[in-house]
Write a structure and sequence with these properties.
By secondary structure, the protein is mainly α. The protein has two helices and no strands.
Length: about 60
């Protein structure tokens, strides 16, 4: 269902944004190891969000 795929994409975009903010905070405080870990987590969430976005797009266009 396209709705579920859109919802999952949005959730992962939100998680990615939070991880990016955490990475920026850690970087600003000089904790580069923690910044790197949060950056990696942001990348994972962004990749998953992209996958769900692609799925949602395909499901949405299939219903036209």
């Amino acid at each position: 269902m396209a709705h579920d795929a859109h919802k999952k994409a949005a959730e992962h975009h939100e998680h990615a944004a939070k991880a990016h903010h955490a990475a920026a905070e850690h970087h600003a405080n000089g904790d580069h190891q923690a910044a790197h870990e949060h950056s990696a987590k942001a990348h994972e969430h962004s990749t998953t969000a992209h996958d769900h976005s692609t799925d949602a797009h395909h499901k949405s266009t299939a219903h036209k």
